[in-house]
Structures are given as structure tokens and as C-alpha cells.
Amino acid sequence: MKYGACNWIFGDEPLVETAARLAGFGYDGLELKGDSELYDAAEVKAVLDDHGLAVLSLTPEDVDLPHPDAEVRAEAVDYYLRLLDFAAAVGAPMVGCHGAVGRIRPATTYEQEYVNYVVGVQRIAERAQELGLRLAIEVLNRYESHLLNTAEEAMRFVEEVGAPNVGLLLDAYHMNIEEADLGSAIRTVGKHLVLFHAADSNRQAVGRGHTDFAGVMRALKDIGYDGSIIVECTASGPDPFTPVKGQGWREEVAGYIEESIRLLRHYEEMVK
């Protein structure tokens, strides 16, 4: 497996500084913010090459694929199509995908928005297939999304989409809220898992909460998962939708990132 970290958790820190941090801690790459206007693809590749890192995946913006308004949905699809081109340019093999984070109830009905989501992902998957890319549908907790809160729900969704390049992104933090047993959920999705996010139950470093990461790593081994593990923890404090938490927040996150890869590699060795 390869290890990375989301760069959005460092806020507006220049990419070259984040890359130096991650390389110093022994990471293989990062999950890059999906903002093609913020980054020049050639510069991204040059910075990461200098530090021996790769773009492992992209974090999408909060566009709304399931929205009942056709214009809103069209704008969301257009965003993802542009994001796919950006992914190809920076060499990212995987693009994360989810609805608008923070919309926790349907504007019309769950059933209609579910259909909208299926159709939107199918359209995006066609273009991703042409570019040789994969989509990872992220499973979010009920406090951030009204669609696809559990691994079982998301697995049915991916099967309904029916595209060979569309899989699932499970996140230990969200799973801690929604799943009765994290290892069982991982084993349930099996081959559908294409990306994994790691943060402890309090969204801090691996080892600072009560999540059984030894069990998580054992389950990943059991299903033969050989994809990336992306650390996505944030500094302590309120407001889960911003990385900026107050004085010293960035140094706190850097400490979490260092702790997390050390423990994850330890657990990986344990379950071999």
C-alpha cells in the first residue's frame, strides 16, 4: 500500500512546504485539492518530483451532483469533467466523488436525488474511462450528507452505477459514526474498495481516539487491498469544515500526520 495525506488539511500552505513535510515523514504522495484554478499541473508535478512524491488522488470540491435543479447538476458534472482533465495532467489515477458536504436532507425526495446521483456518476465515469482514471465514491456520515452513509448503501449504489472504473472510498472517521464494526464493513465492500481515508474517532491522529486500527489494517489485508491510505485528520476544535482552528493549528496537524504514518506502518507490519 501507499501512504498519503490530504493537502487541504494544511489550509493555504504552499504545496512545496506540504510536500517537504510529507516527504520528511516518509509518505509516498498526497491527495491534492481538486482546484484546477489554484494549481498549474506542470508545477505540481515538478514540486512533487523534487520530493519523490506522487499525486495519489484528488479531493473534489463541494459541488452537488444529486441536486434536483438540473442547472446545478449540470454545473456539478461540468466541474467533474474538468477535474478529470486536471487529474490526467497531474498524473492522479484516482478522483474522489461525493455530493455537497453539509447538505444533510433532500430538497425533494431521497429517491429522486439518488437517481440523479447515479446518472451524474455514470456520465462522469464515461469520461474517466476514456482517460484511464477511476472514481472513488466517498461514504460520508449523516452529519455531512443525506446520501450513502454506510458501506452497504454505497456498495449498492456502485453496483447500480455499473461502471468498472467506479469504486468506493471508505473513511475511518465517518465509519466510526455509522458502522457497527469497521472491519466487517471493509470486508463487506471487498473488491469495491479503491481508496481509504484514515483519521481516528475524534478526527485527530491515528492512535489518539478509540478506533481499532489494527483491526482496520487486518480487514484491509483480508480483502487484498493494495491501494492508497490517505490520512485526513484535522486539528482539535470546532467547525469540521475548515482546517484553521486557532493558534498553532498547522503545527498540530503536522504532528498528527507524523504520528499517523508511524502507527499505520506499525499496524501494517503487525498483520502481515
Task: Describe the protein in words.
The protein has one domain (2-270): Alpha-Beta Barrel (TIM Barrel). Strands 3-2-1-8-7-6-5-4 form an eight-stranded parallel beta sheet. The protein contains nine helices and eight strands. The protein has helices at residues 15-25, 41-50, 70-90, 110-131, 151-161, 172-178, 182-189, 213-222, 249-270; strands at 2-6, 29-33, 54-59, 94-97, 134-138, 166-171, 193-198, 228-231. Helix 4 (110-131) packs across helix 5 (151-161) and helix 8 (213-222) crosses helix 9 (249-270). Strand 5 (134-138), helix 5 (151-161) and strand 6 (166-171) form a beta-alpha-beta unit. The mean pLDDT is 97.
Task: Give me some keywords for this one.
single chain; 272 residues; 9 helices; alpha/beta; TIM Barrel; 45% helix; eight-stranded parallel sheet
Radius of gyration: 17 Å
Give me the secondary-structure category.
alpha/beta
| CATH architecture assignment | Alpha-Beta Barrel
The percent of residues in helical segments reads 40-55%
Strand order of the largest sheet: 3-2-1-8-7-6-5-4
CATH superfamily: Divalent-metal-dependent TIM barrel enzymes
Kindly identify the CATH topology. Answer: TIM Barrel
Shape: globular
Which stretches are low in confidence, meaning pLDDT under 50 for 5 or more residues running?
Answer: none
% residues in beta strands? 15-25%
Characterize the largest beta sheet: strand count, sense, and whether it forms a barrel.
8 strands, parallel
Secondary structure: number of strands: 8
Helical stretch tally: 9
Secondary-structure element order, N to C: EHEHEHEHEHEHHEHEH
Highest-level CATH class: Alpha Beta
